[in-house]
Amino acid sequence: MNRATPRLRALAALPFVLALAVHLLLFARWRDELPAELATHYSLGDGGEADGWTGRAGYVLISTALIAGLAAAWTALVRRRALWGAWATAGFTGGLLVQLLRNNLVDEFEVQISEPVVDLAVAGTAAVAAALAGWALTSLVPEEEPAVRSGAPDGPRLALGASEVAGWSRSTGSRTLTVLAVLALAATPVVLLVLSWPDALFGLLGLVIGVPGLALARVRVTVDRHGLTVRSGVFPKPRVRIPLDEVAGADARDVHALAEFGGWGYRVRAHRTGVVLRSGEALVVRRDGGREFAVTVPDAETAAALLNTLAERHGKV
């Protein structure tokens, strides 16, 4: 399995380390000029006037946790071709935090004002510059070539007579993903009713998270004469199908959701994709060209044996 190399992970973490260092150095340098309570939220409807404040210690803890969390996520999920995205994220986040500090460099009795257009322009410029740096550094990470397989499908077989037909199907799901999706969807109308415009737009994030989450919280996995089909157990789509003529081999093995796929749900990684609802037993299909597709499902060994038999019968030899 292809995983992010230590060098790639280090390069993905580097921009966040730099952003955190610059932010904390500026905070230390401007500390005496900053008020005891920093303005950390501004109303878009009142000319950008501050309407939310955070103490210095709390601000440092929250901003540090934000950068550290983004760094951890990018370090775990990064791929070579997306390294620039890690740098862009760090540049944008660091730029916004620096602008927030600058907006607080006023007398504590003055009304603090934010100019969103200016702040976003500065953060966007920092993101573009950082993205270009990340793109340039991509050359330091060698690209791994997928191993190309040919010949008959390898792995277990299911004994079938020449005239026998067979199919296999299992339903599997994740209670955790179901609960999170339902909570996200339930929170959407609450946020839309409680928050005023345009902050209420954040409530739409519940739909962005909840609908795909609910669609993949339970799936039906089928192996038959059409190949492998994985479809949502709730909605008609999404659906993934691998026809028999694309199967180079299948087997059953344990997978680690976070370490190998960077999380749960429909995952896309270098040279492999998957529908991963938990860690544990999974059906792993090797496709022509070397890419892998994995789906976590019980009785994966039977599914792999049948898929290999059907693919071999289909004319893979």
UniProtKB/TrEMBL annotation:
Protein name in UniProt: DUF1648 domain-containing protein
Transmembrane segments: 57-77, 84-101, 121-141, 177-195, 201-221
The species this protein was found in: Streptomyces wedmorensis
Keyword field: Membrane, Transmembrane, Transmembrane helix
